[in-house]
């Protein structure tokens, strides 16, 4: 019932916006000699949305882009999710879009997502406030903080999680637990406990809300997500108030929350309000959780399917582990002596494209490569299209970590590999994510061997994920106790 009302309204609104936009687009074209990038707006009502969704629900969505690139070139016009959109598969154009964030383009999310994120989320901030908060977030996860504090927590929490594994394991579930526990620890110094587990349950409902059709009022998933968001915000609010009290008593902790207390920002200046802090922390949870846990899962999937890469990786980590003994934690020097692991990390990011690209809105008419993007239009800078382009990466669609060992593998120009975006919104968690993945792989390959428990499928819509959460059957092995080998 719920669903059919949704669909009806969605179609109705689509017809309406489509006709409106087609009329304005035509007017634009008449008024100027400028031309739109070539392409087709697809069917009335829904544009090319259905083609896009059905492609991204398979393991090989590439034809959607390939067909259009071969027909129209690297920049083309399409019509998806209710709006005409200029799609870029061109690295220079992508760079131009990312670098001109806030000047010519601005990030743009549907209203339903904005409600879930909260008004004060970094993802929604603009201008100088964004700049200040972005650099604050950067300094929370920069390499010296990682080295001095975060690495030890990451090592400990990854081990703790792996200790509980037996028999059959849903890798995606475990990776989610790890990243959630880690983020909570990093944000507010909590170790895993009943409180964090309850928080995670509510939080999962919020995440589900992100992927409903953006028509909030009628979707029950969305309603539940909004309720859950309120609960998560309340729980976090309580923590913030407690910590303020502790600070008055002179107590200081070393985490993101402390950095926010010390920050002199806020809309009115003079420190952040509790609401601002809660929104901000929630946004960090959202941005870091799904992405990092998915990349952990997919790295294991690709390695499992590429045994010689897995055995090369294992060699690297066994050597480190034998040097350190069974229980010693990884240190920064260890992390820095994993060259092949870094190739695996890059190759996984390149092939998986967890964030396949970013949507922006043109703030003014923009001329690029002989085309005009009309003011107000949506633009999609596709990282995926570039990462999987044979022109930029040899044999681009196969998993080949060794390509990163030669300079040729790391692509012809610096704009070509952008898993973490770029410009003013470049991902502040880029190094944190790399360290988390590397530490996870270290403990995984030195402590277990595994086989997939059943066939599973990688899909890309509504998010990049394994349909069955990647179940594996594991076997503990010990480098130090040959009887367990
Ligand atoms: C493999 C893991 C990750 C990937 C692939 C990834 C990718 C990205 C990308 C592409 C953007 C740019 C979005 C845009 O331009 O609109 C971004 C932004 C962001 N990421 Fe990540 N990310 C990852 C992990 C993390 C982690 C662990 C954190 C936690 C600190 C994080 C926090 C953020 C935040 C706060 C933003 C918004 C920045 C802004 O708007 O100024 N990300 N991420
Ligand atoms: C990292 O951030 C801290 C503040 O949190 C700052 O003192 C330090 O200089 C930064 N380090 C680097 C390498 O940027
Ligand atoms: C946190 O980690 C512990 C230990 O690995 C695990 O038992 C628990 O389920 C995790 N909790 C959450 C909320 O992720
Ligand atoms: C991995 O990619 C980054 C760019 O994101 C690059 O700086 C680094 O050198 C690459 N690592 C390897 C081993 O090629």
From TrEMBL:
InterPro entries, sorted:
Cyt_P450, Cyt_P450_CS, Cyt_P450_E_grp-I, Cyt_P450_sf
Where is it predominantly found?
membrane
GO biological process, any:
sterol metabolic process
Topology in the lipid bilayer is annotated as:
Single-pass membrane protein
Cofactor(s) demanded: heme
Which locations, inside or outside the cell, does it occupy?
A: Membrane
Molecular function in Gene Ontology: heme binding; iron ion binding; monooxygenase activity; oxidoreductase activity, acting on paired donors, with incorporation or reduction of molecular oxygen
Q: Which family is this sequence assigned to?
A: Belongs to the cytochrome P450 family.
Q: What name appears for this protein in its UniProt entry?
A: Cytochrome P450 90A1
Instruction: Specify the species.
Output: Anisodus tanguticus
């Amino acid at each position: 019932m719920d669903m059919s009302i949704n669909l009806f309204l969605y179609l109705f609104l689509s017809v309406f916006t489509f006709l409106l936009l087609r009329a304005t687009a035509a007017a634009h074209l008449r008024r100027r000699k400028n031309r739109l990038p070539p392409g087709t707006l697809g069917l009335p009502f829904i544009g090319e949305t259905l083609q896009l969704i059905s492609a991204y629900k398979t393991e090989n969505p590439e034809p959607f882009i390939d067909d259009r690139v071969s027909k129209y070139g690297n920049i083309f016009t399409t019509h998806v999710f209710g709006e005409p959109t200029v799609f870029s598969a061109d690295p220079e154009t992508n760079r131009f879009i990312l670098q001109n964030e806030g000047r010519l383009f601005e990030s743009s999310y549907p209203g339903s997502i904005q409600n879930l994120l909260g008004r004060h989320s970094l993802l929604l901030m603009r201008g100088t406030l964004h700049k200040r908060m972005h650099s604050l977030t950067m300094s929370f996860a920069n390499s010296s903080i990682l080295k001095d504090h975060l690495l030890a927590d990451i090592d400990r929490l990854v081990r703790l999680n792996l200790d509980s594994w037996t028999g059959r394991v849903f890798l995606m579930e475990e990776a989610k637990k790890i990243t959630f526990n880690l983020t909570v620890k990093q944000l507010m110094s909590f170790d895993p406990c009943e409180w964090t587990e309850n928080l995670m349950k509510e939080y999962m409902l919020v995440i589900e809300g992100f992927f409903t059709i953006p028509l909030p009022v009628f979707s029950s998933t969305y309603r539940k997500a909004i309720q859950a968001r309120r609960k998560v915000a309340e729980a976090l609010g309580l923590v913030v108030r407690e910590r303020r009290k502790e600070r008055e008593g002179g107590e200081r902790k070393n985490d993101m929350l402390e950095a926010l207390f010390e920050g002199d920002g806020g809309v009115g200046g003079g420190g952040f309000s509790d609401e601002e802090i809660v929104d901000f922390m929630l946004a960090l949870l959202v941005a870091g959780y799904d992405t990092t846990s998915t990349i952990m899962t997919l790295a294991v999937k690709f390695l499992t399917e590429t045994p010689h890469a897995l055995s090369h990786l294992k060699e690297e980590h066994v050597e480190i582990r034998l040097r350190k003994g069974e229980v010693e934690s990884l240190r920064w020097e260890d992390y820095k002596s994993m060259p092949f692991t870094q190739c695996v990390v890059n190759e996984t990011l390149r092939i998986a494209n967890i964030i396949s690209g970013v949507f922006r809105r043109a703030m003014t008419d923009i001329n690029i490569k002989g085309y005009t993007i009309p003011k107000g239009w949506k633009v999609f800078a596709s990282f995926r299209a570039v990462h999987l382009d044979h022109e930029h990466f040899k044999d681009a669609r196969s998993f080949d970590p060794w390509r990163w060992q030669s300079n040729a593998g790391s692509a012809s120009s610096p704009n070509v590999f952008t898993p973490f975006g770029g410009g003013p919104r470049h991902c502040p968690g880029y190094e944190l994510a790399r360290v988390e993945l590397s530490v996870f792989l270290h403990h995984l390959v030195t402590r277990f061997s595994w086989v997939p428990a059943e066939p599973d499928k990688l899909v890309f819509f509504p998010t990049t994920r394994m349909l069955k959460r990647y179940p594996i059957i594991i076997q503990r092995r010990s480098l130090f106790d040959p009887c367990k080998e």
